[in-house]
Design goal:
The structure is a homodimer.
Chain A lengths: L5 H10 L7 H12 L3 H17 L1 E2 L6 E2 L5 H5 L1 E8 L2 H9 L5 E5 L17 H9 L5 E4 L5 H14 L5 E4 L15 H9 L5
Parallel strand pairs in A: 3-4, 3-5, 5-6
Antiparallel strand pairs in A: 1-2
Helix pairs in contact in A: 1-2
Chain lengths: ~200, ~200
């Protein structure tokens, strides 16, 4: 980092490792750290180390937790499992307050182009959970893109033969948006999946 | 932070203290920290503590340094002092590679509305530097806004009687921009300060 003294240059460099942070933003963040009080900076640094050391995957669902088994796995209806790509997706689903079951986080989707095979994501773990019994339905909530769809289809092909109901999140025009601005693939899905009212 | 386990919620909360970072961005940053390796997270946390503990004000100019006196004060022409509001402004000036003198960082501008009086910014320190002798010119490079102009005028009124040349950065149409998009105050300044070619 030219023009900066070493400690500031190093801090700016660390900030640029965060997603979407360029040199200018990193500089703004670094200067704000320097303007923090000693204890604020300490608390910031500690929260990073603390999160990194305490947070790991739930031994059941693979979502982030600071316990062995996460709160959702401990308290909710384990007969219905919602399969998602990433921990972020669990957060998004939870915000909707509609789903009462448990999750299974794959930590990726099958993508031969990127060298991600079914063995690289948490599919075995899902099958093991199902093998324990009691699962009635699996909702595939991977993203509606090529990899997400392919992963949903692949997992479905493994689970359906076990006599378990496999469903997929509905796709269509987002609530509150205008049809005018919806892309053509979304519109065709919305037409195909239309419901009688 | 609802919906998050404590270590993640705490980290998100820390990130929202950075300038311009909202809940969504802070969440993205926090998740990226959790996806870092142990040593990456450690290096990030250390760079924060390191910057905070090593960086302080240069005892002469008030810019950030990790030494007693900064490199600029040590090596450059001390007969001409450029007065700026913040350390960031030094960086911006240095990028232009035009100025060969030293700086004086005020760490603020006079702003009665915000309760900032001349005693709250580093004006005494500037006068002390001038009292040591050898200063021929002071360039006022505070921002061209109400507080910046008022601060420039106030400091100028203290320094001019000492027989020192006081100048102000030129204002006008920015290079590379279009006159069409310049605001009317900039255009009137550009007309008043027009130069014969």
């Amino acid at each position: 980092m030219s023009g900066y003294i070493e400690p500031i240059g190093r801090l700016i460099n660390e900030f640029t490792k965060l997603p979407g942070v360029g040199a200018k933003t990193a500089q703004r963040y670094a200067y704000s750290v320097i303007n923090m009080t000693e204890s604020e900076a300490k608390s910031f640094a500690e929260s990073i180390l603390n999160a990194k050391s305490k947070v790991h995957y739930c031994s059941k669902c693979g979502n982030y937790t600071d316990e062995d088994v996460c709160d959702i796995c401990k308290t909710r209806d384990a007969s219905i499992i919602c399969v998602v790509k990433e921990p972020k997706d669990v957060l998004a689903m939870e915000k909707a307050r509609e789903f009462k079951g448990v999750y299974h986080v794959l930590h990726g989707v099958i993508s031969p182009m990127d060298g991600v095979t079914p063995n690289d994501i948490r599919i075995k773990e899902l099958l093991a959970r199902i093998a324990e019994g009691g699962v009635k339905e699996v909702i595939m909530a991977t993203n509606p893109d090529v990899e997400g769809e392919a992963t949903a289809m692949y997992i479905s092909s493994l689970i359906k033969p076990l006599g378990i109901k496999v469903t997929r999140l509905a796709h269509g025009i987002p609530i509150g948006s205008e049809i005018e601005y919806a892309d053509e693939i979304t519109i065709s899905r919305a037409i195909l999946d239309r419901k009688e009212i």
